């Protein structure tokens, strides 16, 4: 075999290699497209949860001072206001409401995450916070913020102080703290970090008796 023969045989060999590479790329593209279509279909198949209609008293968040509302955001999900729209997860506050609305699904499941993202596409952050707080479990069989405020402090939510609201917010925190007062202080410290409470206001807070 001469050098000319070797050179003449090279093109077919490279041609076969290109065909193999092209086939592999085509398969990869098909898999990606198939996965994308399946993901879109799964997203579309998950229904938006129906609105919970609690039997207990509810509160209109428009009547509640923002610092009081922010205690609950600080305790549960400090990034709630800043979180961008996330089509596959949603914020923790919205996921918790979605999980409660469909009863039985874990808050971390894909299905609940998609439901939460659909809710966030439809409602404002304030509306979602209201849905959650009016249905949240505040411990010891207490459901809803209005009931929790009356049970613990004997007053409507709109009359709660920041210190009192922080006490009610502690049981909602994702990570339980065995020391309620330390957890209460953590909520207030988070509010300071987020700019929702000044250092002077923080220093003036006392733990409710």
From TrEMBL:
The keyword Oxidoreductase does not apply. The chain crosses the membrane at residues 20-44. GO terms for biological process: peptidoglycan biosynthetic process. Pfam families: Transgly. Keywords: Membrane, Transferase, Transmembrane, Transmembrane helix. Residues 112-183 form the Glycosyl transferase family domain. GO terms for cellular component: outer membrane-bounded periplasmic space. GO terms for molecular function: peptidoglycan glycosyltransferase activity. The keyword Membrane applies. This is Glycosyl transferase family 51 domain-containing protein. It comes from Catellatospora bangladeshensis.
């Amino acid at each position: 075999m001469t050098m000319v023969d070797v050179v003449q045989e090279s093109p077919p060999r490279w041609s076969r290699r290109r065909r193999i590479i092209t086939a592999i790329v085509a398969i990869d593209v098909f898999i990606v497209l198939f996965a994308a279509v399946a993901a879109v279909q799964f997203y579309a198949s998950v229904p938006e949860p129906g609105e919970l209609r609690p039997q207990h008293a509810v509160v209109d968040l428009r009547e509640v001072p923002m610092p009081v509302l922010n205690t609950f955001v600080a305790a549960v999900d400090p990034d709630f206001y800043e979180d961008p729209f996330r089509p596959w997860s949603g914020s923790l506050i919205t996921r918790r409401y979605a999980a409660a609305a469909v009863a039985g699904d874990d808050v971390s499941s894909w299905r609940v995450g998609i439901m939460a993202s659909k809710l966030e596409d439809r409602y404002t952050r304030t509306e979602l916070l209201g849905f959650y707080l009016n249905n949240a479990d505040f411990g010891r069989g207490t459901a809803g913020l209005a009931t929790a405020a009356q049970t613990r402090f004997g007053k409507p939510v709109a009359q709660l102080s920041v210190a009192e609201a922080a006490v009610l917010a502690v049981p909602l925190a994702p990570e339980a703290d065995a020391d309620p007062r330390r957890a209460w202080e953590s909520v207030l410290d988070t509010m300071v970090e987020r700019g929702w409470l000044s250092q002077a206001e923080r220093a003036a807070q006392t733990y409710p008796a």
